[in-house]
Target: DUF6192 family protein
Amino acid sequence: MPLTTLLDNRWVASRWPKERRQDGVSYTVHNTVHKALAGIADEDARFAKILHPPWHEKSKTHRWTQDAAKREVGQRVNHPTTVQEKINKVHDLLEDEKVAARVATDLLRQPQVVSEVVEDQTAMHLVNRAQVDRSHRIAAQRLEAVPQPTKQAIQRAREQVRHNREYIDLVGACATFVAAAGQIMPTLRGHSFTEEERERVHANLARVRGATEWIGQAIDTGDLSLDEGLAALLRGE
Model:
């Protein structure tokens, strides 16, 4: 017997005095159940738990099994039954990134799976981000193969596209703020503000004014630098 196995068994035995151990099951199940429940730190809770086995659907009796004991202490079960247990099992099998990528590709060919994925905003954001990153890699590889003059022209075009996109983002941010304010203000008719609420709103309005002045100055002069006072204001300090 390996020394580690011997020490492990000795630890499990130390958690269960002889009079607290449960008989009537095979050694394998017996040992696994006691080992799993040995992880319950509170001694009284541990001894009480083993006296109340859960319902076993197959045998229609209350009994301990390896999976039941593992389930009680949050360990991975050998035969998952719930959705979350099955998900955990799948995650264990997909630790290899190449295997996970192959399985994900196969699953996304199923219409029902795709419809579920598009409902998850985080998943869709990651997919879109991956598509953009892939496009950038392909563009960079193709750019390496063209002559230098053409490469420079392409680079200038890409910078112009980036500039246009950033310009649209800036205009959109301003429009979003104005639209949001236009929707919120009418709902405040008749609302009484506390002193703390007024102070908080005025503090945030000062940040808005500081941001708009910075934007206007940057557009007019091309200087994007911030003085310390404005930087602190925008951080909310």
Notes: Residues 3-78 form one domain. Residues 22 and 210 are 72 Å apart (CA to CA).
